[in-house]
Amino acid sequence: MRFTDTLERLRGGLIVSCQAYPGEAMRDPRTMAQIAAAAVVGGAAGIRVQGIDDIRATAHLPVPVVGLWKDGDAEVFITPTLGHAEAVADAGADIVAIDGTRRPRPDGLSLAETIAGLRAHTDALIMADCGSLDDAIAAEAAGADILGTTLSGYTGERPKSAGPDLELIELIAARCRRPIVAEGRIHSPGQAATAIAAGAFSVCVGTAITHPSTITTWFADAVAGARG
Does residue 27 form part of some domain? Predict the structure, then answer.
């Protein structure tokens, strides 16, 4: 996919994140691929998947695939090194999502060095998962193509809001020119629409669509609470 074509296909659209945690019943690339295919049928403009096998299993889908690789137990674990990022691109991702914060990376490279190295390796787009306005400004300066609010509330720079961090979306939109993907704690269609109104280029939703264990907990807790 060409650069502009990929972005235009995501403009004003929904990206569905299809991920399961290790040890969960759905933690299988085939299952994630089936969920991703169902999301496309439902109108997803793109999908986001984690892990090399999952990326390979979904690369054939007729929408842009945002790929990442969660690895390690350090603070930076979303596609944490240049090697991880290259492997994600090689697996077939149209967009490589990497940790876009200013925190130290496991391989010692800066964010700018990581983006430059990945740019030399592939023509895939690069999405920086940010946690603050300063992260987004630095990621844009480093050459990221897309700015995500994925890590808002998880890096200590911003409070963890109950819903999407609309203030951060507005702040980034006012200071940066790169497209913004609103991601994180978007639990309803109304919240997704509000994120677009706040300045997001597109919206990424995962848990509320593709994580039945969590969704079941929401309903089970509500029912239990109603019983008194």
Answer: yes
Query: 176 in a domain, yes or no?
Result: yes
Domain at 60, CATH number: 3.20.20.70
Cβ neighbours for 117, distance < 8 A, ≥ 6 positions apart: 82, 85, 86, 109
DSSP string for residues in the chain: --HHHHHHHHTT-EEEEE---TTSTT-SHHHHHHHHHHHHHTT-SEEEEESHHHHHHHTTSSS-EEEE-B--SSS--BS-SHHHHHHHHHTT-SEEEEE-SSSPPTTS--HHHHHHHHHHH---EEEEE-SSHHHHHHHHHHT-SEEE-TTTTSSSSS---SS--HHHHHHHHHH--S-EEEESS--SHHHHHHHHHTT-SEEEE-HHHH-HHHHHHHHHHHHHHHH-
| pLDDT given for residue 1 in this prediction | 45
Query: Are the C-beta atoms of residues 199 and 180 closer than 8 Å to each other?
Result: yes
Q: Does 25 have pLDDT greater than 90?
A: yes
pTM over 0.90: yes
Q: Is residue 147 part of a domain?
A: yes
Give CA–CA dist 164/150, Å, rounded.
Answer: 10
Res. 227 pLDDT band, cuts 50 70 90: confident
What domain count does the chain have? 1
Residues spanned by the domain of 196 = 3-223
